[in-house]
Amino acid sequence: MAMDKKIALLQDKIKQANLGGGQARIDSQHKKGKLTARERIHFLLDEGSFEEIGMMVTHRSTDFGMEAEKYLGDGVVTGYGTINGRLIYVFSQDFTVFGGSLSETHAEKICKLMDMAMKNGAPLIGLNDSGGARIQEGVVSLGGYADIFYKNVQASGVIPQLSAIMGPCAGGAVYSPAITDFILMVENTSYMFVTGPNVVKTVTHEEVTSEELGGASTHATKSGVTHFACANEIDAINHVKKLLSYMPQNCEEIASHLPYQSADETRPELNNFMPENASQPYDMREVISTVVDPDSFLEVHAAYAENIVVGFARLAGRSIGIVANQPAYLAGVLDSNSSNKAARFVRFCDCFNIPLLVFEDVPGFLPGTDQEWNGIINNGAKLLYAFSEATVPRITVITRKAYGGAYDVMNSKHIGADMNYAWPSAEIAVMGAKGAAEIIFKREITASENPEEKWLEKEKLYSDIFANPYRAAERGFIDEVIEPAQTRAKLIKAFKMLENKVVNNPRKKHGNIPL
Ligand code: HXC
């Protein structure tokens, strides 16, 4: 065959591959308000940067007349490209080919990409839209999933792994995204569950829609499985890009610094920010956004366990991770969900050399049977463990309450924080003055002619001694009590000072975080 004919054949095959399962199925995908696998890649990567790998792969199955039905690429588009100039590996499942279902070869393509991403130290992004295991293939498809899970674990902590769920994600298929670092879902067109509504109805007699069972809002608020619920696919893609901008390429690197022009770093408004009454709530996000670089805060898991706020930001152009108690929700108390949420975030930041900044205003752990029976002991221990093992630069600012075990857990000096600041409004004690007085002066209060008055008097006494940052500062548990207005300036200097921090935890195979 002459070269021009060979090239024409190649072009014909490329055209076929680009059509996936055919125009009719592409139209049907669009009608559902969804983009195709290739359109998603187009919007994700820098213009013209995508290089496809494995376009001509087809499945090998022969049962059920499958030999006669083959599509180039076999339901997943894989390759590499750049986002804002950075190398990224991406796979994008093509729902127009057997519903994006995972065959043996589909899995092989993803695994090959994961190997390349690990070898070359670049993030992996999965755009998931799949009916799950390719039913016609049986166990080889299940094996393919397991191969992916295994590699997800090998890659964990080596390269950032992000999963955007753009369609169905059911059965064991949910476990690959679950192992990755961040999940993003699209409202109304994506769902994740281990078993769908039909199985649920048969087994538990519950009637539930796919959306209620495993839609984006459900997982963003109730289960915490997804970190972001995005309005549409473009919003999800933009979130992926933003999220990546705070991360390095791999665990050996640090996230790139944005250029920063130093300016007046004082924030006088913070001196008048704290409510007079220590029981009055305020929104910690206001403190965060006043302290970090303008518009740089990207909240993660915003609608889940809102008593703790986590997210990425920049300080003088440097990427940092923030963990902050939220007095505006449940008074900022630590409970099981907030401890889990924060622990996972701390571990991500530590994996990828992202320094940690903690804002603390916490009245303690949430009491009650619900918490105890749901394992607040183990869950709280996760956060304690996560902070304790983190070797990245770690700074805490106590804005108000730091009570009880929560004082220790929230990145205290004792568990390895590098710099601990307190505002003059800080109260660092075993518990609030009212509760403390009731316990330690019980006899005096009950014996008094006016118990209420006695209680108030003792509360004041306890409060005068402990409801301040100075007892902790005397011991060096607090490095400096600072004016709120100076917070940003202090943090910029301290993070710069900690830039070359080196800490080596004792050699071990791996620790045993209480799961
Ligand atoms: C092969 C599949 C498929 C699958 C869908 N298709 N799922 N082909 N294996 N798992 C095909 C359909 O035959 C159809 O082909 C096309 O994809 C689109 O499917 P529709 O049903 O027409 O689309 P829709 O109405 O949007 O419904 C999508 C769906 C539904 C909800 C995903 O297809 C579905 O329920 N599929 C089965 C899901 C499932 O039970 N998967 C196994 C889960 S267990 P045509 O030719 O008409 O275009 C699992 C185990 C993993 O995944 C274990 C890992 C440990």
From TrEMBL:
**Domain CoA carboxyltransferase N-terminal: residue ranges:** 3-259
Report the coiled-coil segments. none
Q: Name one GO molecular function term.
A: acetyl-CoA carboxylase activity
Q: Report the record's Gene Ontology biological process terms.
A: carbon fixation
Q: Which GO terms describe its cellular component?
A: acetyl-CoA carboxylase complex
PROSITE patterns the UniProt entry points to: COA_CT_CTER, COA_CT_NTER
Q: In this protein, which residues make up the domain named CoA carboxyltransferase C-terminal?
A: 262-508
Superkingdom, natural source: Bacteria
Q: Which residues cross the membrane?
A: none
Similarity annotation: Belongs to the AccD/PCCB family.
For this entry, the protein name equals Propionyl-CoA carboxylase beta chain
Which source organism? Pedobacter soli
